[in-house]
Amino acid sequence: xxxxxxxxxxxxxxxxxxxxxxxxxxxxxxxxxxxxxxxxxxxxxxxxxxxxxxxxxxxxxxxxxxxxxxxxxxxxxxxxxxxxxxxxxxxxxxxxxxxxxxxxxxxxxxxxxxxxxxxxxxxxxxxxxxxxxxxxxxxxxxxxxxxxxxxxxxxxxxxxxxxxxxxxxxxxxxxxxxxxxxxxxxxxxxxxxxxxxxxxxxxxxxxxxxxxxxxxxxxxxxxxx
Length: 225
What we know:
68% of the residues lie in helices and 0% in strands. By secondary structure, the protein is mainly alpha-helical. The protein has a domain at 29-77 and 119-217. Helix 3 crosses helix 9 (151-173). The mean pLDDT is 95. It comes from Pseudoclavibacter helvolus. This is Abi-like protein.
């Protein structure tokens, strides 16, 4: 228990009853229990961001590798940014990323900088069924060589995992409640996704991610969902 001089009751109006509502409903409602769960949720959010950041880098690099190979086979030295049959949203995302990477044209475009500017949401949509015949079958399925053998099944499972991880990452990054979510499932999805890319990737996340330890520290006063 903290020995600091601050008053938790004094913090209540600063954090607002609306923000603390889900924590109150998930506990006895006492100030001590509410803050225990709120502070745990902060640690869980940090751990979720850590986990999803690891997955994001693995996924984007794997997908980019395959798209570069696909582009080279189709158009030689032309970037896949310029020939991938993206929808309006995808094209806008790439344009924004290129703008940020080049500081709106004030410095040369470097491929890796553009990749780093593309969000997890972009990669999540890139593996959706809308691109099944245009990109998944001829190219991007190879980013997950150890995934399910059936390409349609692989696409569905990869898309589901990325959708869920993108959702929970966004909640965590915006300091929203994740205490009622099945974070164990999110961790399993992350490990599955990494393992479909390479077993070393799965083992790395297993070794480094703090989420399982944070889950084990969930306050006993909180109601399990």
